[in-house]
């Protein structure tokens, strides 16, 4: 078994958002291209999309909507961040999204240090994001937390120690969060490839093999049932 996957699966009682909410109050949320096309969802209107999220939660008597790992999505077509001229479109999501209201607390998944942080200001990007570095059983890997509030970056410094379950941020609102309905993009990364404060959260079809290996399913760690 891949060593990182083995390490992730051995961790217990991991929360990265709203620690008072139990996983039994989470509901799966499908934002794949066939679903959003069929429902004709307002993908470019953050407020209308937030209403759709709230409706999904209410209908399912739930408090957090989650999903998105390896989903092929149309959410990114409005932004040049994901499609440059003569470059294959990036539309496969390689993190896990947790949808809940702005201002919700975001927690460190594991003990570690702040590797880097940055406000990624382009339309459709992460907005404020924090990357933590972790070392377990001699292996170094990273977790990324995107779509945060701008205030979440205040007082942070590289190398700052954090503890599992410590509040490190709050969710941001549009347009600061990249102009999305409020949610946390949570991603696990083996090799940051020299990047700081940012790392691709969406890949193209031809890149998928690499990113599946470099960014394993975050639910291996969270274990949301």
Q: In words, what does this structure look like?
A:
There is one protein chain. The chain is of the alpha+beta class. It has one domain: Glucose Permease (Domain IIA), CATH 2.70.70. The chain contains five helices and twelve strands. The strands form three sheets. Strands 1-2-4-11-8-7-6-9 form an eight-stranded mixed sheet. A two-stranded antiparallel ribbon has the order 3-12. It is globular, with a radius of gyration of 16 Å. The two termini are 22 Å apart. The model has no long low-confidence stretch (mean pLDDT 92).
Write the layout of secondary structure elements.
Elements: H1 3-10, E1 26-28, H2 33-39, H3 46-59, E2 64-67, E3 92-93, E4 96-99, E5 105-107, E6 112-120, E7 127-136, E8 139-146, E9 161-162, E10 167-170, E11 183-189, E12 202-203, H4 208-214, H5 219-222
The CATH level-2 architecture is identified as: Distorted Sandwich
Can you tell me the overall shape?
Answer: globular
Q: Quaternary state, please?
A: single chain
CATH fold label: Glucose Permease (Domain IIA)
Mean pLDDT: 92
Percentage of residues in helical conformation: 10-25%
Q: What order do the helices and strands follow?
A: HEHHEEEEEEEEEEEHH
Strand order of the largest sheet: 1-2-4-11-8-7-6-9
The domain count comes to 1
Number-wise, the strands total: 12
Biggest β-sheet description: 8 strands, mixed
Question: Which superfamily, in CATH terms, is the homologous superfamily?
Answer: Glucose Permease (Domain IIA)
Question: Which CATH class applies here?
Answer: Mainly Beta
Q: Given the helix and strand composition, which structural class is it?
A: alpha+beta
**How many individual helices?**
5
Rg value:
16 Å
Strand content: 25-35%
| Cα distance spanning the termini | 22 Å
